[in-house]
Amino acid sequence: MPRICLYPKDVATLTGRSYDSAKRLVRRARQAAGKPAGALVTVQDFCRLTGLDAAEVSAALNAPASR
Q1: 55: which residues sit within 8 A by CB, 6+ positions away?
Q2: Which of 57, 25, 34, 63 is nearest to 44 (CA)?
Q3: Please, which domain of life does this record's source organism belong to (predicted)?
Q4: Where residue 15 falls among pLDDT bands split at 50, 70, 90?
Q5: CA 35 – CA 25 distance, rounded (Å)
Q6: What is the pTM of this model?
Q7: Residue 45 DSSP SS3
Q8: How many CB atoms lie within 10 A of CB 18?
Q9: What pLDDT sits at residue 2?
Q10: How many helices (H) and strands (E) does the chain have?
Q11: CA distance 26 to 13
């Protein structure tokens, strides 16, 4: 099943930012979506804030892990 929620670790991997910077970005995406603290952030919420393509982010998020 494809993942639709993003966590700071995912954002750090996708953007190349540090984990702390990714946490701030997830927090901003949550606030921009009008969600309460602790609510999950979806790919759509994140992409609305950053302007990234949701299909590309979803594909990267759901790609099999390289070993």
Answers
A1: none
A2: 57
A3: Bacteria
A4: very high
A5: 14
A6: 0.86
A7: helix
A8: 11
A9: 85
A10: 4, 2
A11: 13
